[in-house]
Fold each of these.
Amino acid sequence: MYFDKIIFLYALYVAFAYSILAFGATYFREVADREKTLDIDIGETLIYTINASSYVVSIIFLLFFIIFAFLSLLQKSPSVITYVIPLAIFVNTLQILIRSSFQKTAICVNGIQLRYMLIGGINRLKYHSLTNIQIEPFFVWYKVILFCEHVKSGHCYINREQLDILMNQINNYPSCTITHKTKA
């Protein structure tokens, strides 16, 4: 293994500039999402849930970082780009972690607020407007698909404790039918 300190410092400078742009874009997306908040009052938040897919994406990016970092150390005469690629992947991993911390689903007293990592905006659904909910097991989580007027209005991935809280709130609205699907 060979490590060139001078080239690595140049790569750190490039990665720093890239991180400023990446984190700025992440923060801009969060501010833009907050500006588009709806005036639907869904009550006090009971619990926040982080989307399960953000964990998977973060782990995949972290694995890519480890692979490329190891490959960059195997180069006999590395260039700046050899060190920049793993650093940029690491910056993207941090960016995804920050974005996923912003994009929490909120289970509230009168409704649910859905936020997705790759889709901008906030989707707020009142429980009384829901007509159907489908619950499907998804690894250790549950995929909850929400329908308003029999049209799919959103989905989220939650754990058992969060599902119980959601079901307690929805049980107050008899117009909403709950369908449990099992894996075939």
Amino acid sequence: MKKTAIFLSVSLLAVQASAQEYYHDGTRITADGITFNVRKRMEIFNLSNASNHLVNENWQYLDGTEVDPGANNVDYLSARASFDLELMKKALKETFSKAEYERLSEAKKSGFRVFYAIDGQGNVLEISFILNARLNPELARIPPEKYAQLEKNIRKHIKWETNEYAKKFKFLHASSQLQFPDLPIDYDSETPGPYTKPASQKGP
């Protein structure tokens, strides 16, 4: 009888741990040296580094002139940036274990978007995550430490390729919508990490 009681209590603790809610609207979470602001509506939540500010500002030229997104600006409309998805695969591989990535890949639509502020040379300045846990419930089960690690790995590995128009800006915005099933990762290879091919997204 004692053994049964102990087993049940341990099982309940495991269930509670697996169902832990990390993300609540209007809160701040600090993990691995990064503080995230949490914004949540229903099952969609945004994790934004508390130090971010460029992701919410209009683009700027190198001389600091601000761009009006509603204006018929040729540079703004023609700016393009892309990165090799192999680099994202490398960042993902260095963040998630094989088992974690397999769980993330079970959803047909990943519901995972990354917004960036980048400079005209394609260097990542800021990152913000938009996560749809309705499409992929596993996203809400990932502890904040993993998102902090992913932000660091994205900064470490990803550099965007910018065209001549994008190079005119001090900073601009870009985004990538990730579908985990379309980004297979070879966890059995001995090389540090596989990384993928071009995702071309321009700013808002």
